[in-house]
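User: I'm curious whether this sequence folds into something compact or stays loose and floppy. Could you predict its structure so I can see for myself?
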Amino acid sequence: VLGAQAVCEDAMVTQQLLQEGFHRDLLLQVELGVTRENLGRCTVAARTRLPPGIYVDPYELMSLQRHNFTKALVIPDAVDVEAPEYLAAELVVLLYMTPDPQCSKCFTATLPMHGRYHRPAENNGAALVALKSPEILICCCDNHLSTECWKPSDTKAACLGRSSDPCQWYSVKHKPVNEELMMQIPVGLRQHRFLVCVMTLLATALCSSMILAAACRYGRSS
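Assistant: Here's the prediction. I'll summarize afterward.
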């Protein structure tokens, strides 16, 4: 049984946003108070809440999971990727973490995220979306670790690489390096609305005319 003193040490959580614009990567790193050797086959995960202004693409996650790049569960699993920010709902993502080869106590994970379209702004051409620090979870289905300092979690998910049956997860007390990240998403300006409408109508009319002309031309030749 692992000593309670080691288990009770606060974890350190660092999160960072990579790239710019609508399509970003969230890089998470967790440093536990215990080494991976003592954890054994326990699974470490981060449960993060995405506000309505941010979403993850389930199909993109499925593709990444097939290539063992990222493993995550999205709640709810049905995500409307076309919905704007003001019609979208909050998402919860359980992101399984992998050992960091450069640190014996560290685990990392990367989550691709996308910004939703926001309402046009008056002056500032960007919207700020706050991303809170995640909750760190551990499940040890087949280990005899001291859990007296861990708070049981209501998370319903299996341990990575174990049975598909849900396991008992525990919430680990941690210290976030930053309480929240601010994601900047480009938005349109209200004063450009008329110009955008006119250009959209012209482009639509031009493309429709080209399709109609092609249909008439090749329809007669057939």
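Summary: The longest strand covers residues 106-115. The chain has two domains: 11-188, 189-221.
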